[in-house]
Structures are given as structure tokens and as C-alpha cells.
Amino acid sequence: MNAQKVMNEEDLKIAFAIRENVFVKEQGVPLEDEFDQFDTLKGECEHILVHYNEQPVGTGRIRFVDGVGKLERICILESFRKFGLGKIIIKALEEIAQEREATKVKLHGQTHAEGFYKKLGYFTASDIFIEDGIPHILMQKELTNK
């Protein structure tokens, strides 16, 4: 199990396929809402892929907004959940934030994942809100220097 930064268009397409599988097909997010102007290799985001037995099965991205790392589009293919891959994705994105000298990260987490994020040091910073028809909460974390 390892995470790697997406460095080429082929890996970016794999990340997109994972996101489409999870968010669009499984959760019903409209395709036009899932992908945006930040989904490029040379954009404002850095994307990662996580592998299980050398197979890409999860992804996430980080975008920097006013010096804060915003973790986005975090997902794992259904049959690979419960292997600890979510933690690997979050840690990899946090490392990117630290490399960029961000001292804080935030995310819009689906409410069912609130406990998972709390175990990783995040705190709930909002009431529940709806995003793409799914209940979410804003979660934040202060980063410490490496």
C-alpha cells in the first residue's frame, strides 16, 4: 500500500476513473459536478493515487485556498475500503500541504466519515450542509512542522 503523486496524464485518467466510479456511479453525483477546472496536471491542485497490491484503487487531491490546503475528491473503490487506505491518502495530502508550508488543512467530509477524520486529528467546524445532494461537514486540522 502506497500513495504517489500523479505526474502524468495516464495516471490522472486513472484517478478520474476511480472518482467517476465512486462519486458518479455509486453515490449519484452528476458527472458535470464531479470534474472542474482544477482537474489538470498543471492546475492549482496536486492529485495522488493510492495502490493496493500495485493496483490503483483510491485517489484524492489538494488545492490551496488562501494558504490553507483543501483536501478534495478523496475516495476508494468499494471493494478496497477497510484496508486503511483512506488514512494513507489523507497523510499523503497532508505531506503535500506541509511541503507547501501550509499550517492548516480543511475538507468537506461526508457526515458518515466524520469519525474517521476525527481519528486523524480533524475537528468539526460547521453544521451539516448539503453538497451534491449528500450531507457534509467542514472539518479542519492544524498541521505541525515536520
Keywords:
alpha+beta, 29% helix, eight-stranded mixed sheet
Describe the structure.
With 146 residues, this protein is of the alpha+beta class. The relative contact order is 0.16. The mean pLDDT is 93. The protein has a domain at 2-102: 3-Layer(aba) Sandwich (Aminopeptidase). The protein has helices spanning 9-26, 31-34, 85-99, 114-119, and strands at 2-5, 45-52, 55-65, 68-76, 104-110, 123-124, 129-131, 134-142. The protein contains four helices and eight strands.
Quickly describe the structure.
The protein has 146 residues and is an alpha+beta fold. It has 4 helices and 8 strands. Strands 1, 2, 3, 4, 5, 6, 7 and 8 form an 8-stranded mixed beta sheet that branches.
CATH architecture descriptor of the domain at 2-102: 3-Layer(aba) Sandwich
Major sheet description = 8 strands, mixed
Shape: globular
CATH superfamily descriptor of the domain at 2-102: Gcn5-related N-acetyltransferase (GNAT)
